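Help wanted!
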Amino acid sequence: MSRSLRLLPVVLLALVIAALVWRLAHPEDTTIRSRLAGKPVPEFALPPAVPGKLGLASADLAKGGPRLLNVFASWCVPCIAEARVLDQIKGKGVAIDAIAIRDRPEDVAAFLAAHGDPFDRIGSDDNSRVQLALGSAGVPESFVVDGRGFIRYQHVGPIEPADVPTILAQLEEAK
Amino acid sequence: MIAEAGLAALWLAAALSLLQLALTIGHLRGWFEAARAVSSIAIVQGALALIAMAMLILVFVRTDLSVALVAANSHSAKPFIYKLAGAWGNHEGSMLLWVTVLALAGAVLAAASKRLGQRTLVAALGAQGGLALGFYAFLLLASNPFARLDPAPLEGRGLNPLLQDPGLAFHPPTLYLGYVGLSVAFSLAVGALLTGDVDRALGRAMRPWVLGAWVLLTLGITAGSYWAYYELGWGGWWFWDPVENASLMPWLAATALLHSVTVLASRGALRAWTMMLAMIAFSMSMVGTFLVRSGILTSVHSFAVDPTRGTFLLALLGLYVGAAFAVFALRTAKLNEGPPFELVSREAALVVNNLLLTVILGIVFFGTLYPLFVEAATGDKLSVGPPYFNTVAGPIALVLAALVAVGPLLGWRREKRPVLKRLTVPALLAATALVVSLFAAPQIGWQPRLGLVVAAWLAFASLIPLSGRNPWRTPLATWGMALAHFGVAVAIAGMATDSAFTQEKLAAARPGETLGVGPWLVRLHGISPAVGPNWTAIEAELRATRGDRVRVLRPQTRFFTDPPTETNEAAIDTMLRGQLYTVLGKPDGQGRWQLRLWWKPFVTLIWLGGVLIALGGLLALIGRAWRSWRKERPSRAGRSWQRERYA
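Answered by r_m:
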């Protein structure tokens, strides 16, 4: 067996490892081109998720300005990590609404007390029906909705600090 | 305390694996004599790893929520069997299971290998210790399964309901046993290349490991395929998903290795190639583990991917495979290639088998990683799916299956008998299958048709090696080979009939309406709620009739609360002639329900074939073990029927 042939496996391995290292350094982005992007928010009207706060209907999302719609749940651990980032986004003057999935009022209230409440309205989606209609498969997910009630952008998974510029840019674009 | 005991056992095992590696280096360098010490350490290390695994299972069984892993993956209301399975149904637990199997394999190698040269055995145990050390370090530094959670939560966070299934509870451990069983072949190859003793004895020491790992991989893949088929509710049995490919690649390499190691064990030929394959087979196991565990190839909702873990595993992968390939590059020049053989001989047939399997492996490997390469080079995103794999790998697999009929009829070194004459009957059967399929089903594609022809050809040809022999004197290994090859024909027949004759119906129906699929009339009798231990469901009652036979199927949509998830439970009715496969979809809000119905003739042959292949491997394994046990008892040796015949 010639020398170069014997070294071939090592070379191939190096190539594969290089590609895998590249992937680790550039993780696949978790944004999904929403199939609903560019379409209006499906019709819904949800009751309040906590006493003392308003519920959420699709009409509330078409009131002139872009809004962020956050799909979350008190039992969802990544949502805890996300809460901090949402507060930060709220601080930039962004209006945020939420839908709590399969949740209990007292749990949502405890969650908001512990991790902050950046939400204007919170609708309670007891059976995930609205969540599924939105094309959301898990929690947390977030949608940028423009002033006419059209979905502009969908973010799957928790919004991490690194995602904030993208979200803000999408909100800006939706104006 | 249980968790701490497990952690202590893990640390001790890690320390011993380091000692095992260090003593091996000293022994091979000639600084001191440590052969017995290395063997004993390997055995103790295996026992310690087993203790750690047992402790983890114990905290899961007791639902000790102060252990972070239990809190994240279990729930007090979960059925017992899934509490048990929860121990390995997560990242940390599965990695502990992985290293436990690795350490136990090392222990068995140390305890049971008598026929191997001592230096090679020590070198192989050193390599095995080195492998284990890396994975212990990974567990202890980056994925501690015993980490505590303070304060302990009141309730655990459940387990993915898709995984609450008996098939999946035992599918991963089976695959892992197979994956990691290949580590011994890897270590033996590295050890033998280091000492230069690549010979028939090495082939014989390696063969049972390869055979055993291959049997488990075959079973694991077959079970996984069936699980995906009935649990995902998509009606397909193989999706060329990266995770599936991750298990297929080691299997392809192991299948090639299984055949080449036979050449090495029987004839002493194909030395360098067999060593390379042994390294590739376990490397593919590690690649598979990396792809699945780092999550880099799964697309959506892979929240839990921790870059440190991915980097750590990749570093281990690069280190081990790189070191092995380097040893190969430096040491193979010294190997001679063993006795020569002619073009028409069993060796040559096995070389062709190996080449084709390696090409298929290359195709799958390339297809799995191609999107990654393209994105790294150009930034474009694309995905490689079934059209590529089926078009490129399918025909080669069929050619390979057709040649499987020929190899076993050839003798070692050279074949003088007219082999083609023995294949007359299979050729006639294949021609009949072709003609019948052309007349009876002119509409089917060329690949399923070729599949039917090859299946007919191989089903008979695979049994020829048994003909004309006294069945009681035929070695078990020969029975095993024939059975495994027959299983290939059965599986191909199932795949071909499934893709040629499956009928599908997707429609919305009101209760009382009837739909037709294949020869069946399916009536939606009613929709009702159902309740299980930790789920609620909507259940459809379907009455399928064909002539005067009535069958009732109850597909469900299940809702799990913790975590909230919705799954489709397909209802499948298995008959001799095929399966009726039904899935309940969503209501349309106007009183109609979506139904997906499939009639799949003879689809079960796919998995039956898989099981036959594994059974064949098991027979061969038992046969070989029996023989070597007989041989080690000199009082019984020397009988006439005990002649050495390498089948």
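OP: Thanks! One thing I noticed: The longest strand of chain B covers residues 520-531.
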